[in-house]
Specification:
Length: about 280
């Protein structure tokens, strides 16, 4: 019996797991230690193994987050390939079509009867930029305005050296992503398919529309309305926070005037610019 116990103990303590976990209480005699029933030792090993597994999993690093912890201080990449940019657009599409971005766009669409169009537009743009920041952060860029600017600069340089077919693939992917964001935020699920059937505006048509927008923006009535609305907003003090609030309110006033008096206006009984 003593020989069997010695053999069992040697086998048990030949692994690192049991060397760390199985401890015979101090003060026991050698005979008492060897007389410990094998079943008890096995139970002790099993218990310690389970505890070790729990400790191992609890010590594992946390799962990836939307923004890497060191994204704000990490050194950004010096360049990017066009293929990486195409992959980034694919990742954005995933977030917008199936992920957190879609959830946020659905929430914006649900505010159709309670929130002004401009407010929903601003939330839509914020959701789009959040998704972009998430993606570029995983590429090593800062998840903020500076990172987006640097990423766009690097992508432009990469596309300049890319073949025409890859440039066109990138353009179409970016266009489809933005259409999907618009369709989700304003609850127009057929927008993407309708645009595929109708095709794209020609350069001439796009220039004509921009010319009409420019003319309406320069209308004296529109300019006077913008000036009056912005004049009602003034910073309460000279702090940066107060200045930021002032600029935000003025920016919203300009956007609301653009929507109501430029894009959707039916001046002199004519059609609006979006019809």
């Amino acid at each position: 019996m003593t020989t069997a116990a010695n053999t069992l103990v040697r086998r048990c303590f030949s692994t690192t797991l049991t060397r760390r976990c199985v401890r015979v209480p101090t003060g026991m005699s050698s005979s008492s230690r060897l007389a410990t029933p094998p079943v008890a030792i096995n139970n002790s090993i099993t218990s310690c193994a389970q505890n070790s597994i729990v400790r191992s999993f609890s010590a594992m690093p946390p799962p990836p987050t939307a923004t890497p912890p060191n994204a704000a201080t990490a050194q950004p990449p010096a360049s990017i390939t066009a293929e990486a940019g195409l992959g980034a657009l694919g990742a954005m599409r995933l977030f917008v079509e199936h992920g957190l971005g879609k959830r946020k766009l659905d929430e914006i669409a649900a505010e159709k009867d309670t929130s002004p169009l401009v407010h929903r537009w601003q939330k839509m743009i914020a959701t789009y930029l959040e998704s972009q920041c998430h993606v570029i952060a995983l590429l090593g860029y800062r998840p903020d305005e500076t990172g987006i600017a640097l990423y766009s600069q690097h992508l432009t340089e990469a596309l300049r050296l890319s073949p025409p077919d890859l440039q066109e693939e990138m353009r179409v992917a970016g266009r489809d992503n933005y259409r999907m964001v618009l369709a989700g935020a304003f609850d127009v699920p057929s927008l993407v398919e309708e645009q595929k059937e109708r095709g794209e505006l020609s350069v001439v048509d796009a220039r004509n529309i921009m010319h009409k927008v420019s003319l309406r923006m320069q209308d004296p009535e529109v300019l006077e309305k913008v000036a009056k609305r912005c004049g009602t907003y003034a910073a309460t003090n000279d702090s940066p926070e107060a200045r930021q609030i002032e600029l935000s309110r003025k920016h919203t006033a300009v956007q609301e005037t653009m929507v109501d008096d430029v894009y959707l206006s039916r001046k002199e009984g004519g059609a609006s610019l979006v019809e």
